[in-house]
Amino acid sequence: MFPAHFAWPMAPLVSLIALAGCGREATTNPVHGTVTLDGRPLARATVQFLAQDPGGRDALGTTDADGRFRLSTFTPRDGALAGKYKVIVRSVPEADPAVVATNVQEAMRVASSRQKPIGPLITIAPRYSHPGKTILEQEVPPSGEVVFELQSK
After folding, report:
1. What is the pTM of this model?
2. 130 with 88: CB under 8 angstroms?
3. How is the chain split into domains, by residue range?
4. Which of 23, 49, 91, 94 has a CB 3.0–4.6 Å from the CB of 85, allowing a cystine?
């Protein structure tokens, strides 16, 4: 082992290292906005923020009849963690139980268990709806309301 005079200077360093990873809670920022398709509000769509930063978490929201949404990460409508995101927007069949899911994991579980669509879907181009093709990006926290103006052509 080390002589006694080496142990004392190491104690504060070990304490600092141990404390560095403790006590940090993930803080979300409120994120809300609107989605339009060809200039009209897009109702019944999911807005999913896919985290691009290490340690990030995905967030999910669902648009209402006016195309408005609020994101959820850990609890309903709590927002999203600060960071960079790719964004995908997908149409949701009417009365789909994934719409009322409280977080991304629950929505994905419900969506994967669904046998067939419940109602009509609006076609949203892969440049907005496919994780590997989306052109939508967003930084959180945003300055003001987030607006996604999608075009069908």
Report:
1. 0.70
2. yes
3. 27-144
4. 49
